[in-house]
Every structure is written in C-alpha cells, then in structure tokens.
C-alpha cells in the first residue's frame, strides 16, 4: 500500500496560519481580559502578587480562547486550501 506524502504546501500554510492565529488570539483575549476585569492581564500568573482566582481565570480564558481560535481558523483555512487545490487541479477544457 502506497504511503501518502504530506502536502508540503499545506504544512507551510498551516504553520503560518497557526502563528498568526496565536498572535491575534492572544491580543484579542488580552483586550477582552482588560474590558472584563478592568486590569491588565497578568504577565506572570504564577507570581505571588497575582491572586489565585485571577490566575485561574486568566488560564481558563487563554486556554479555551486559544483552542477555539485555532480550531476555527485551521478548519476554515484547510477548507479554503482544499477548495483552491481542487479548482487548480481541474484542467481547462474538460
């Protein structure tokens, strides 16, 4: 049975999309944190100066928010890439 080779173009695109998504989601979630709490996001949630509730809340927001952003963006990007790839593979005149 022939082994499928990974699509190098998608791996590169997926990696770049992942980096951009992580950066953007962190910025958006930081903004949400400031609007919700009225305080800047903790730089070091493990610091004794940050309350336990604040550290846990920040961790939950970032964990869930980053995961949701990655899922939505990766699925959308993959769907668009597959559509582009299928259109590109159709030869004119057929």
Helix count from the secondary structure assignment: 2
| Rg (C-alpha, Å) | 20 Å
Tally the beta strands. 0
* Average pLDDT number: 85
Residue runs with pLDDT of under 50 for 5 or more positions: none
Distance N to C terminus: 30 Å
N-to-C SSE series? HH
β-strand percent reads under 5%
Would you give an account of this structure?
Helix content is 72%, strand content 0%. It is elongated. The model has no long low-confidence stretch (mean pLDDT 85). It contains two helices and no strands. It has helices at 8-37, 52-89. By secondary structure, it is an all-alpha fold. Helix 1 (8-37) packs antiparallel against helix 2.
Descriptive tags:
94 residues, 72% helix, mainly alpha, 2 helices
In short:
By secondary structure, the chain is mainly α.
Write the layout of secondary structure elements.
Layout: H1 8-37, H2 52-89
Helix pairs in contact: 1-2
